[in-house]
Amino acid sequence: MKSYKDLEVYSLGLELFYRCHSYSLKLPKNKMYELGSQLRRSSDSVPTNIVEGYGRKKYKADFVKFLTYSYASCLETVFHIKKIAKLYPEIIENEQEFINRYNELSAKIYNFIKYVEENWKT
Known about the structure:
This is Four helix bundle protein. It holds the Pfam family 23S_rRNA_IVP. By secondary structure, the chain is an all-alpha fold. It has one domain (4-119): Up-down Bundle (de novo design (two linked rop proteins)). The chain has five helices and no strands. The protein is elongated, with a radius of gyration of 15 Å. The two termini are 14 Å apart. The relative contact order is 0.16. The model has no long low-confidence stretch (mean pLDDT 95).
């Protein structure tokens, strides 16, 4: 692996971030800066923490810490998606499919954390 761009968790996280961002901009103006901002920040945090962790890959503990932040941001993003889907069902198409993609990403990040903990050479 030559770059964080080679990581599947990064690619999937970035793809899902772009979807979240576009959904957040469809919210009513009074919610775009509250709930929309929370969704944008948590979904952006997923790939961003992967990138920052990769930048610290020389230090296994730091890498794991940032991957763990990324994992937690996945969970937070699912929570925001569920809130938006309940309050504004017309905003998010295929809510369950979207949640499933985030759950898939969460599992991949979790497995990657385990891999790094057990196999990463510094």
